[in-house]
Amino acid sequence: MKNTAKHTQLIKAEAKRLGFLSCGVSKAGFLEEEAPRLERWLTNNQHGEMAYMENHFDKRLDPTKLVPDSKSVVSLLLNYFPSEVQYEDSYKLSKYAYGTDYHFVIKDKLKQLLAFIHDEIGDVHGRAFVDSAPVLDKAWAAKSGLGWIGKHSNLLTKQVGSFYFIAELIIDLDLEYDSPVTDHCGSCTACIDACPTQAIVEPYVVDGSKCISYFTIELKDALPNAMKGSFDDWMFGCDVCQDVCPWNRFSKAHKEPLFNPNPELLSMSRQDWEEITKDVFQKLFKKSAVKRTKFEGLQRNISFLKD
Prior knowledge:
Layout: H1 3-17, E1 22-27, H2 34-43, H3 57-61, H4 63-66, E2 72-79, E3 92-93, H5 102-120, E4 126-129, H6 137-143, E5 148-149, E6 155-156, E7 164-171, H7 190-194, E8 200-202, E9 205-206, H8 212-218, E10 234-236, H9 240-243, H10 263-267, H11 270-274, H12 278-284, H13 294-306
Parallel strand pairs: 3-10
Antiparallel strand pairs: 1-2, 2-7, 4-7, 5-6, 8-9
Helix pairs in contact: 1-5
């Protein structure tokens, strides 16, 4: 067996052992198809006030500029679909934020995977990325055969759906490369039809500046009055386009204990959320991604829904 094939099998087997849903590999290089798409999205100001999206344009499209001498992008998926969801008559949190912040959980697994590569394969250099650097995660995962980009712009996988995180190792090791899969959205427009703020402006294009996740997490200013009544009770993030997607009928509960929510969180009513104190916020979201919006941000979002 050639070394590239052997090394690839070793990495994929270890990724599975660490709990990743799947692992795919692409050759590191310039993302030709994504370049005009990203440029158009930025030119149309569909990133809103997420100014950081304009930074490092070249690095975003070419990982060899981000990690010198890199040869391979190893893409990994980690399931976060919960076994239980929030009390129905309540303000809603995106499911990805139920448990411990995924950055910590995945970074730890990626460090273990890198250590394994060093131990088993040798002097391999690279970096681990979890949504924290200019890497087009979904594009690389699609290129690596882990799914296709759906009309809601999320990665979709047959038999699995889309409730998973995407992460990468970019390394200076030649591996066996996977091929992309075909698009299976067909004529379905469930996500486009269901989006409460019409943020999916055309199939495969999301205007980030209209997305509920953008308003409730990224936007630091006051929420626009024009959006009153259209947030569908989402106080942090939004799962509507994923919830209505037929492929998510196949979602199965994750097996990562760190993603389990504080039991109290699932049973909180609207009134509980409206009366939440800073102490309760700190207890509920001790190591959670919800801390990004801070206590004041969550209060702002709740009062916007309530008024």
